[in-house]
Amino acid sequence: MALHRVIVENQYEVKYLLTTVNQSYKRISMHGVREILLEAQAEAMGFPLLKVEVSEGSNAEYERQMAATLHKAKAEHITHVIFGDIFLEDLRAYRESNLASLGMTAVFPLWKESTTGLIHHFIALKFRTLLCCTNDAFLDDSWLGREIDETFLDALPPNVDPCGENGEYHTFCFDGPIFRRPIAVKPGETVYKPLDPAPAISAEVPVTKGFWFIDLLPA
Fold this sequence. Notes:
single chain, 219 residues, alpha/beta, three-stranded mixed beta sheet, 6 helices, 29% helix, globular
């Protein structure tokens, strides 16, 4: 949606898509999506892809590798980095601070918009996306592989943000108005990854004990 908004409003010339990839597993960090599907996604949208490669999983490594990649982009006279964040103030401040240290500017096209309005507009525009990861404090493995549509929204628990903005779920977008063609995928193995160390359990507040992943495969 953020990319679509930028293209429609024509305020910026988009040069690259930027994604963090785990070198060891050849997957998008946190989403668990295979690198081959990431590449198919970028190719289907017609943009070259910049990969920030990490292996340790530490925040220090992420910042170091991200800075190195963005330094290369800056050498090509790229000045702005666009994010899809909607309302998490601490995440926005973190991104802005990191970019400011590089002499670059963060852009948030969807900032403070209604997540309910955004997800309905997303569906109306005929974007198509599947859940590839769920946070077990909010959604179990039965939600994996489900497509976001009006039926999905009707069934969503009230404590889950419609756009998953609090990290309740992550998705893989495979079709939409900015795609030249859809990406064919099929469901593979379902995997549960517990947090280590395990968190303290609270009866009052949902606590994340781990994450469910579905291994999406090229079809």
